Amino acid sequence: MNRVAWSIAYLCVGVALSWLSMVWISRLSRRLAWPLINTRWHDCWDIEHCHVSALGYTFIVAFIAAPSLIWAIAGFKQANAASSRAVAALSLVLGMVCFYLLYYAAVWR
Which residue ranges traverse the bilayer (predicted)? Predict the structure, then answer.
């Protein structure tokens, strides 16, 4: 039961930090000339008006949910290791922020 509780706690923190990372980096993208890295992605980013394949929707869901699920898995594994929780949490925070920052730097317009 301890592992489930820690997993749920980490999942909640992961969802909150994922949302905050996306909001902060989206605000940052309005101030900088994006994309910082020149890529050849298609020009249509509106999923309402553009054709998006099932694989595209899969990537969208994974982009939103994967970091939070990684937090939940880390919480499950860290339930009995009290000494390394802070290091794991810091690593997860940095990894999540870098994940979203690299996405916006490479793709977002």
Answer: 7-26, 55-74, 86-106
Any idea what the Cα angle at residue 90 is, between residues 94 and 16, rounded to 5°? 75
Is residue 22 packed enough to be buried (19+ CB in 10 Å), middle (13-18) or exposed (0-12)?
A: middle
The model scores a pTM over 0.70: no
Tokens 């909001």 belong to residue:
23
**What are the tens digits of pLDDT across the range 13-44?**
888 888 888 788 778 777 766 555 555 555 56
Q: What token pair was written down for 26?
A: 């989206």
Helices (H), the chain: 2-31, 54-77, 85-106
- Contact present, 67 and 22 (Cβ < 8 Å): no
84: which DSSP letter? G
